[in-house]
Amino acid sequence: MPPRPPSGPQDVPPGPAETPPPGRPGRLMASTLVVSSMTLLSRVLGLARDVILARVFGVSAGTDAFFVAFRIPNFLRRLFAEGAFNQAFVPVLSEYKSKGAPEAVRLLVNRVAGTLGSVLILVTVIGVVGAPVLITVFAPGFGDDPYKRALAVEMLRLTFPYLFFIALTAFAGSILNTWGRFAVPAFTPVLLNISLIGAALFATPLFVEERMAVALAWGVLAAGMAQLLFQLPFLARIGLMPRPQVRFGDPGVKKIMALMAPALFGVSVSQINLLLDTVLASLLETGSVTWLYYSDRLVELPLGIFAIAIGTVILPSLSKTHVTASPAEFSRTLDWGVRLVILVGLPAALALSVISEPLLAALFLYGDFTLFDVEQSAASLRAYAFGVVAFMLIKILAPGFFARQDTRTPVKIGIIAMVANMVFNLILVWHLRHVGLALATALSAWLNALLLWRGLSLAGFYTPTPGWGRQLTRIGLAGLAMALGVHYLAASTSLWFEATAWTRAAALLGVVVAGMLIYTLALLLLGMRPRHLRR
Fold first, then answer.
1. Is the domain of 239 the same as that of 302?
2. What's the CA gap between 343 and 450, in Å, rounded?
3. pTM of the full predicted structure?
4. Cα–Cα distance measured from residue 372 to residue 369, given in angstroms and rounded to the nearest whole number
5. 256 within 8 A of 112, measured Cβ to Cβ
6. 511 and 443 in one domain?
7. Could you give the number of structural domains in the chain?
8. How far, in Å, CA of 245 to CA of 247, rounded?
9. pLDDT digits (tens, 9 = 90+) for 427-470
10. Fewer CB atoms < 10 Å away: N or C end of the chain?
11. Is residue 84 a part of any domain in this protein?
12. Of 163, 182, 315, which Cα lies nearest the Cα of 228?
């Protein structure tokens, strides 16, 4: 039975603080820069985390076990929380918000919090109890190594509850993003990196050498708690601290659940493909999972700093323009996002491919991480780099469907891309081993992105603005100049493989800065101006 409405003004607490989502010219860019700067901080700390993990743990059965144990809840987090749930919840929340009814918004938040929380508790219990089955399913190759399998099961039972905390964190972040508070959710992932760095440096002495990686699993669990607690005061500040109510029959909750079902395959297809890579990599030689992990982490750097930031910012804006029936503004917002990710994504892909070995050597070639590990990780990094632009486009194009509360089209496209990835995997893995898995993911991402683009265009929701051909030519030529420049600057093999850590780090920073300057100068010489980035 629905709750009794308030009997009078004294029963009604202050309404949620209003902050309009960014939608005016210039506001989207400003919000994107805020999110990007916070995400950059997180990614830099993430790189520091990975450098420390490589030095402390190297490549071993323990690291393979941890990365599988961490990837399973992390995959579910991206699939359910930041993927399907976020894309379904934000449009519905924006719709409630646009109607100007604070009590309706508050009830929706309370009921979604209670319903989501109850489901997460059930899923967490199932995951902890069924950890041996999950490891068998997601890392079948570990069955040949009982020690590695037992270690993975133990760590998964510690990392799986992370899903409960981080999914509620994503719920809180979705609310803050809808109210224009982008900085807090963007900063929150920093806490995970700090926790893992602390675990690697200070908790590992508590374990025997063969079990040191278990410290990282404890670090993941602590990070989940810290991230949720960090965001709660900011929800209270805008008057939306949830008071959980389990209401599966609430119209808003039912609408979100209906949108979530197909969205599971929509925006998160690339994550499913990465998990399939892990399954097959577990069947390959020891180290394959770790090589894919480090190469994927470097690809995630531009993806997180730019594409996810832009996608996060434009979803509330797209939802608002859809609710207010502004199709021209909807198309212009999408076009702005697509132009921006291609401007950033193409040079990022070229740089990751051209300086893959120097990049990995400068960051990870220490301690137990060997030159052979650098070569193997670099090979998969080049394959992943081929799909960087596609990965980024998916983050922009998928919200174009979800903002209109259309989750059926992305799911159809997602299923096609996932099946294609499986086929590519089976074709390429036999000859290219772990590199074939990375290349299959990149190819399926391109298929996914192109089908999303085609779907939006044919439906009339996205019409590219004039000047696309000229801009692509400028970006392509400037990217080529940058690639040639960084290849020349990074050509010294002895520098990356024999110099001290600080020398390598300084050289890498110099190459990156030089590449950015070459690219920017080339764009300016070719006629690109800042006004071309305005929406």
1. no
2. 17
3. 0.68
4. 8
5. yes
6. yes
7. 2
8. 6
9. 998 888 889 999 998 999 999 999 999 988 888 888 888 888 88
10. N
11. yes
12. 163
